[in-house]
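Dear colleagues,

As part of the handover before I leave the project, I'm documenting each prediction I ran so the next person doesn't have to rerun anything. This entry is a single chain, and its sequence is reproduced below.
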Amino acid sequence: MPEFEIEFQDDDIFTQCFDANQKITTKFLNKYSTTKLNKLFETYEILPRLRNLNVQPMLEIDTKELYSHHLYIYERDQCEPEKAIVRLIIGPQPKFFGNEKHKTVRGMEKGRNYFERKLQSDLKVLDLKWISMQNTKAKFTKKRPRFPGQKYPGFGMMSQVIKVLFELVDNDGIANEPMHFHNAVFSKSFKFVNPSFQGWFDSLREDLGDEIQKQGLAKVSWAIFYGGLRDKEGNKIEWEGEDMVQGKTEKVSKYFQSKGYLKYYNASKFSRGFYIDWESVKEKMSKH
């Protein structure tokens, strides 16, 4: 686990949205001031685009927690975390495979063991515990439907936010665990560290390709969320994401390109006849 110690600064920072009695005595990731962060969000055109949408953005950080740093972009004078336009929670190295996931899926253990042997002990990444971007003034439409986990529509700038975060990281990269199927689909710059799960996921996405094309990704993701995913034998398949990493070093690139990774990926990359049992989720889907 990388060091993530609180470092007290001489110039305590006070902000508008936090309790005035609370002092924030460290920079984001122990390095970055709000001034530096604002410059990055300007450079990647996030703040300018928000202003073009009649939003008055205000960036703030919360570093009071020992093992998590929070970054918010608020609409000015709306300083509530649940209403934040952008919300990031970053922590230290995740505990990879802490829950022993997907034991029943064939080949997963081999892929997991390969990662543990070849990369895990030498991997230093930050854990993206939470990321959200929401337009609290907008409403969902048929063209912009609601996805599982969303309270409000997004701004369509998630990739730019990830680029800013990637700019801040000075180790091997960023880890993320997609909560929903669509989160993994959208995480194009990330790869699952377990090659067997990456193969399984790519097979799932391809098997559901026609349904996604016909019904839309949001509807398919809701169906999976409600328990409508089946394999060719009719077994119910629950979505449970594993750890993904967007690498920043040659070490990570070599791992994802290694013969071993490709070996376990290819062994797991075959159609399992995944489909959506729409009838089983018909009642729950009626609200969407």
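The mean pLDDT is 86. The longest helix spans residues 195-207.

All the best with the project,
I.
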